[in-house]
Amino acid sequence: MSITDVQQLSEKILQNLERVIIGKRQVLELTLIGLLSQGHILIEDVPGVGKTMLARSLAKSLGCSFNRLQFTPDMLPSDITGVSIFNQVSRNFEYRPGPVMAQIVLADEINRATPKTQSALLEAMEERQVTVDGVTHPLPTPFLVMATQNPIEYEGTFPLPEAQLDRFLLRIRLGYPSLEDEIKILWEQQYQHPIQTLEPVLSQEELLQMQETVKSVFVSPAVKRYIVELSRATRENDDVYLGASPRGSLGLARASQVRAAMQGRDYVLPDDVKALAESILAHRIVINPAARLKNLTSSQIVNEIVSALPVPGGLMSKS
Predict the structure, then answer these.
(1) Beta carbons of 171 and 277 less than 8 angstroms apart
(2) What is the 3-state composition of the chain as percent helix, strand, coil, each rounded to the nearest 5?
(3) Which of 48, 119, 208, 267 is most exposed by smallest CB count within 10 Å?
(4) At what angle do helices 51-62 and 3-17 cross, to 10 degrees?
(5) Among the listed residues 100, 104, 118, 129, the one whose alpha carbon sits nearest the alpha carbon of residue 40
(6) Element (H, E) at 104
(7) Is 130 helix (H, G, I), strand (E, B) or coil?
(8) In this structure, are residues 35 and 144 in contact, taking their beta carbons and an 8 Å threshold?
(9) At what angle do helices 25-36 and 204-213 cross, to 10 degrees?
(10) DSSP symbol at 142
(11) Which neighbouring-strand residues pair with 149?
(12) Confidence check: pLDDT of 256 > 90
């Protein structure tokens, strides 16, 4: 598969998603970048803006299996991973897969579950397998977790620790639609929801090929240095208590490769890195108390770092 094929297939997926998620092109692109980077996505937004529809429409567009997990405080790890049940006929234990055994998993309100239950999902995300009663079961491919957090109503929740937030490649926000887009949504859903007529636009084999092809996108030494300097700048910032980890640098490099391929380029530009820095690095840093008193956010700090850091010059492509 060529870079041009990746660009064309990406556009087909995005156009299909836009039939359901209206007026959110940038968010859809970030979601597709997360999928092709083989990462996971954290969606932090208020109820009713289309988080579940985004995950469902992505699964239908790709012909992938889909499961939705509604996290609650009484949820157990086995409710995610599955259980072994004794079969009295065969006299053996049989594994009954949990809802995590799907290609696209929506973990709704992940911060409402206890840390023990959260860790069961996060282990599956990292290892791409689950272990039940000492037996390891691989997860299907492709595999994508889209977890949601409600940024309000923190009573009775268990916020994800920084080490677990770090396992998400991207943090995105849908936000409210514009006036015109919200009117269009009313028209589109007057008789039926557009997701009911959504059809797959590519095969799972093509998706896996896309995920492999983007790895060949060239990242020049200058751009690699720029990515690392961005991450290091978050660690050295006076307003930051804990900066982005090397996993953040790796994620930023891989996502930049995907963004370049989606635009038909076989090389990464600094603009790719700058466009993705906030979504990939902001949720990985912890700001100190003094910065909170100044009402600074991690997103503002990352954007300030991106603006202040000099952009590398020289050749970016292989030629």
Answers:
(1) no
(2) 50, 15, 35
(3) 48
(4) 130
(5) 104
(6) strand 104-108
(7) strand
(8) yes
(9) 80
(10) S
(11) 44
(12) yes
Give residue 249's identity as a one-letter amino acid code: S
Amino acid letter for position 103: Q
Measured between alpha carbons, how far is 164 from 157 in angstroms, rounded to an integer? 15
User: For residue 49, which amino acid is it?
Assistant: V
- Return the amino acid letter for 189: Q
The first and second tokens of residue 241, run together, are 């208590």
What tens digit of pLDDT does each residue of 40-96 get? 999 988 878 888 899 999 999 998 999 999 988 888 888 888 888 878 887 788 888
Q: In the structure encoding, which two tokens stand for residue 263, read together?
A: 């635009």
In the chain, the amino acid numbered 284 is R
User: Mean pLDDT throughout 189-194?
Assistant: 86
**How much is the pTM?**
0.89
3-state secondary structure 232-257: HHHHHCCCEEECCCHHHHHHHHHHHH
Tokens at 310, concatenated: 């000099």
Q: How far apart are CA 45 and CA 43, in angstroms?
A: 6
Name the pairing type of β-strands 286-287 and 240-242. antiparallel
**Which residue is it, tokens 């902001």?**
282
User: Cβ distance 264 to 4 under 8 Å?
Assistant: yes
